[in-house]
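input
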Amino acid sequence: MDFHHYKEIVTFIRSHHGLTYDCMKELIKMFPRQSYDTLYSILSHEYQKRMKYNHAKTHINKNKYWDLYQEGVRERDSPGIIVRMSKAFDVAPCLIAKIILTRYFENLGVSEKKSLGQEYEVKLHREAIKLGLAFRDEEHLRKNGYDKTPDCKLDVPVAVDGFIINWIESKALFGSEDAHRDYTKNQYLSYWNRFGPGLVIYWFGYLQTIVEPSDKRFIIRDHLPENITQISTATVSYFGRDEI
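output
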């Protein structure tokens, strides 16, 4: 996706006031050429940023209200938990209810995001096996003492369009500039330092501006390429930094 179309989508999301459900319906109408998953990924990311900004000052109280509400539910308190909290903290009951609902849907969103990530990780493993790639998965790497691990660490490096690949990381989201920047800092650089160059897959597409043609650390795709060249281990012994 080019920056112009991405900016149009983000501008509409930021100007929309109301439920994200309604915003999503409008996005589908306005940008019919973009997939549902791509639009939803961009919307989710923008919504998360908005929530962080709006609730930064009430973060401590938000956790307190949520914990007290959960405790009341567990203890099977009589109806009126939110009203009683409102009186105790001198806060409007509608505001406390909003905070509790926001926290609930944040937890639900994290669970859905984790489930989606696992789904596409399985998809990556299935396609890698189909292509005859030998690899170790994240679980195996963690058992061997690696704290930050890619989804696939190839036993034998391969080449994609002449670029050597030692590892593959799968992301079930749209690769925006800020998301890519955060993942590069917190994950990809660690993989590169430990295992050498690799491949990052953004399954829902990515912004063209995040691609650096001269980057020797990793390449970016929106699928697992099939034009993979198998390479002799002797030929690329330099890239096998860690034998596992």
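quick obs: The longest strand covers residues 152-160.
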